[in-house]
Each structure stands twice: as C-alpha cells, then as structure tokens.
C-alpha cells in the first residue's frame, strides 16, 4: 500500500492507538493484564512505531505543494528541537512530553510546505495542544546536569541520524 491510502491508514491506526486506550474500559483491561509498567512499555513502543510509519507514509504520499520552504524555516526547526527535547527531559510528568511534541510539530510545520506534511505536522500540533488542554502545561521541572546532558545527547543523535532515518538533512543549506 502506498500513496494516500497508506497515509490514511497510518493516521487511522495512530489515532486509534491513542484514543482507544484513553477509554476507561480498554485501558483498565490492558493494565490489568500487562501491569502498569508493561502497559506503558507496550503503549510507548506501539506509539513510536506508528509515529515512524506515519512519518514515512507522509513522505511517500503524493507531493502537493502548498507553500515554499524558506531557508529560515530550517533554522526555526533547529531552534525548536533542542528546546523541545529540553522541555521533555526536564519536565516531570507527561505534560512535558506533550509540550515537546507541540514544539516539534510546530517547528516542522513551517519547514514542510506540502499537503501531506502540512496535514501531518498540523495534525500533530492539534493533537499535542488537545493533550495540553487535558493535562496542563508542565509545572514541575527537575533540572540536573545529567538530564541536561541526556537532552543534548538525544538532540545530537536526532540531528545526525535524521538524514539516515527520515531521509532529509535538518541542517540549513
């Protein structure tokens, strides 16, 4: 399956994987069988896998240009990403991760001017902001040199692996 069909299927599974467990019945059933840690580990792995598939499907969808990708937009992404990773690493609780996703998606939205990517990153901004409405902004931060160092290592890994994993260099030309 390729093109728009794959893209729609990836979105449907990604959203379903996040909406169905949010219901009390399915989540409770899964936690009862897998345990809290087992559920969180399985949910995290599934989410990462579906997110990666959705990213690849957006790249394989037909290109329908919406706006030019100005050179400054890659600088915006390269400012947003270390900020997002720091927020995720230093925040206590899920709200930090959700805020980081909003920063990630918002930064990438400006740098990707085709329909599939605009829908992807715009959808992720809406998805993350709706999560922040439920959870609130991060209120507690745990700032340690280890968390800062880990955040910088993760950012460096994302920066260097982006061309290999995603297929596009994040660096301005």
From TrEMBL:
Compartments in which it is found: Membrane
GO cellular component labels: membrane
Protein name listed in UniProt: NnrU family protein
Transmembrane segments: 38-58, 79-104, 116-137, 149-171
Keywords: Membrane, Transmembrane, Transmembrane helix
Entry annotated with the keyword Acetylation: no
Top-level lineage group: Bacteria
The keyword Transmembrane appears for this protein: yes
NnrU domain segment(s): 8-170
Topology term for the membrane: Multi-pass membrane protein
Pfam families xref list: NnrU
């Amino acid at each position: 399956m390729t093109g728009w069909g794959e893209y729609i299927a990836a979105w449907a599974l990604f959203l379903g994987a996040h909406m169905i467990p949010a219901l009390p019945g399915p989540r409770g059933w899964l936690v009862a069988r897998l345990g809290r840690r087992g559920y969180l580990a399985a949910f995290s792995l599934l989410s990462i896998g579906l997110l990666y598939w959705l990213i690849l499907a957006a790249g394989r969808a037909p290109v329908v240009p919406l706006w030019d990708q100005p050179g400054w937009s890659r600088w915006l992404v390269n400012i947003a990403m270390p900020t997002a990773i720091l927020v995720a690493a230093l925040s206590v609780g899920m709200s930090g991760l959700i805020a980081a996703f909003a920063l990630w998606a918002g930064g990438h939205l400006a740098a990707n001017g085709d329909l599939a990517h605009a829908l992807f990153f715009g959808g992720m901004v809406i998805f993350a902001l709706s999560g922040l409405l439920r959870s609130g902004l991060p209120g507690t931060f745990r700032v340690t040199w280890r968390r800062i160092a880990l955040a910088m290592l993760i950012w460096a890994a994302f920066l260097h692996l982006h061309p290999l994993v995603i297929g596009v260099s994040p660096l301005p030309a």
